[in-house]
Design a protein that fits this description.
Radius of gyration: 15 Å
Strand content: 25-35%
Bound molecules: zinc ion
Order of helices and strands: HEEEEHH
Largest sheet: 4 strands, antiparallel
Structural class: alpha+beta
Length: about 100
């Protein structure tokens, strides 16, 4: 169905943007800040951090793309909004506001 193809195409494009954005940022890093290794796993997925207060979880989430050091497991996090992977997510505005 055309709708499914469009949806899948959008998902694939978002995954590609996640990978491309993190890969581009990683070119600026000389080595892992923890173990000084330079072997990174870069998933093409977008993740979220969820806000929690003394009252419990809120509805606020913060979208992230990331890279993981294969030597020590240190994780570098990047705002997924900057990567352009969450442009059509309903909480995108909140993430953008967090950057400003
Ligand atoms: Zn490391």
């Amino acid at each position: 169905m055309p709708t499914d193809n469009k949806h899948e195409s959008r998902l694939r494009a978002a995954r590609q943007r996640a990978f491309d954005y993190v890969s581009e940022q990683m070119e600026r890093i000389d080595a892992c800040p923890v173990c000084h290794g330079n072997d990174w796993a870069i998933p093409d997925s977008t993740y979220v951090l969820r806000e929690v207060t003394a009252d419990g979880y809120t509805e606020n989430v913060f979208p992230l793309v990331l890279a993981t050091c294969r030597s020590c497991g240190y994780v570098l996090l990047f705002n997924a909004s900057m990567a352009g992977t969450v442009d059509d997510w309903h909480f995108d505005k909140d993430a953008r506001d967090a950057v400003d």
